Amino acid sequence: MNTINETNFKFPNQKSVYKGKVREVYNINDDLLVMIATDRLSAFDVVLPRQIPFKGQILNQIATKMMNDTADIVPNWLIANPDENVAVGQLCEPFKVEMVIRGYVSGHAAREYKLGKRVLCGVEMPEGLKENDKFPNPIITPSTKAANGEHDEDISREAILSQGIVSKEDYLILEDYTRKLFQRGTEIAAQRGLILVDTKYEFGKTKEGKIVLIDEIHTPDSSRYFYADGYQERQDKGEHQKQLSKEFVRQWLIENGFQGKENQQIPTMNDEKIIEISNRYIELYEQITGETFVKASTENVLERIEKNVINFLNG
Question: Which of 11, 83, 241, 274 has its CB 3.0 to 4.6 Å from that of 308, i.e. a possible disulfide?
């Protein structure tokens, strides 16, 4: 099965290309961005050696659907999807923070809580909670946007403002948009029998100075979901929650001695594990969208993408 590891396109009026952990972004004439979702898989800020079939298509199509389903409350960068793996949008100047919002004590928050910490990114977490309990109210715990290969770092609202990373006026808009998106995402998830546990949003500014949502939204790479059915029963019994997110990849890596730390060896994923991960991504797509996933042809996949993007740009 052909997967997309890397692209090296030369599109009409292309100015530059930025290659992130899983996406590659082409600047067209300082006007448009062509974002290609590859099949690369990252965890603990490290890109793993093998790609996951259909992962890029899944992320791109979930993000597109969620952008469309939230455009009435928060403006976004998206203009078109000329290919299953491609989003084209307005060129924006990204803010150098990721807006992480958490409704439950899970993942990173749970790991910090277990260490006895009760303040995360300057936000107090109440006593007496256990892993996967719901916070009384969702908390915003921003992180810095690290360069490729480096780790994102927790940062407080106060530090963001005092260091001038984002102006106060803009930051208040980012917080407002983050809460609105999380509320809408929670409602969409509930309709599908899911709980949106936590997620992250990225924002940018258009040439006109308008703040818009960019990148992905409510995908398994940026979000954690629990199944609503049986959630409380599992909590009462102290059992693990049934979840749909990339956390299962992180847990497998942890069990195999890897957390992205220095001198740690990335464990080898065999074909069976790769297919299992692909199937989990497809499961999440179908759960969160309520639609059957249709696999795009992977024959000559790079040629397909190039042709579709060029047709769009020339159109």
Answer: 83
